[in-house]
Batch of 2 targets.
Target 1
Amino acid sequence: ANTGLGTDVFRPRWFCWLSEDILQLFASVLNEAERQGMWPGLVDLILVAQIPKPDGGRRPIGLLPTLVRVWEKARKRLVESWRTTVERSYNFAGKGKSSDVAAWIQAHNAEVAVAGGGYSAAGLLDLAKAFEMVRLELVWQAGLKMHFPPQILRLELEAFAFDRRLSSMGVVSEPVSTLSAILAGGGFSTDSLYLIMVGVCDGVLAENPSADLCLFVDDLAIQATGANEAPVARAVDNAV
């Protein structure tokens, strides 16, 4: 009931008030959108709100039209099913995991190495503006490679490519177009970024098999342990 509203000012919960016949018409619209791979012309604008961050500053969050958000909810189970086929042990944003678990695992590995007379080294990469810096064509290519349901991915990327209006302190900007940004706030935004990060992380492990990775959305921790200091430090440096 308290969810943010996009440019259509239509609350998702209002669909609960509609008759079965009207809901079936909406379902037909969504099925046709998937078939054609594009959204109706009237559904083509994103409102980007500025959400305060705990450590200061503001985080841009996109509010998609309600029709898109309802479609994302309807397709959530299919995406969740796909996700189980591409899960990685280093992904700590997955189901049943957390950043706390990743931190404790790294702390345990470091303590075990040092207690045994060895060494431990770690590096943390926090990708600045991670969602905003990814070209949508790269998400599409990675999605095809990792067998993301193509009809769903295509329609989601079409939504990410809507014109965007920035909203701040009651003022709304002129529309801006971009094909170089995953929409933070979209239903499958983290899945879109995961498509990119898996390729990066798998490549790091292929080149540095002695490194351990902990990925949490756009934060990547790289750790190495061993009996000798130089190889441990080199493994982390090379991976970074």
Target 2
Amino acid sequence: MPITSKAQQRLMYAAAAGKVKDGPSKKVAKEFIAATPKKAMQDLPEKASGRNTGKKQMVMKRKGGY
């Protein structure tokens, strides 16, 4: 899975170096870095928008009538 933003890029490089306490493991960080082409890293946005992250938003529905 490629890196989607500059913020995520900084996190992955810090995790790969072992500087992150509560974050992705070194192995996962190295996989992200390897999956991202070097040319694509230059054009990354500072933060990924909600649509580009691949996460689905959950909609909570109330049951009952309260």
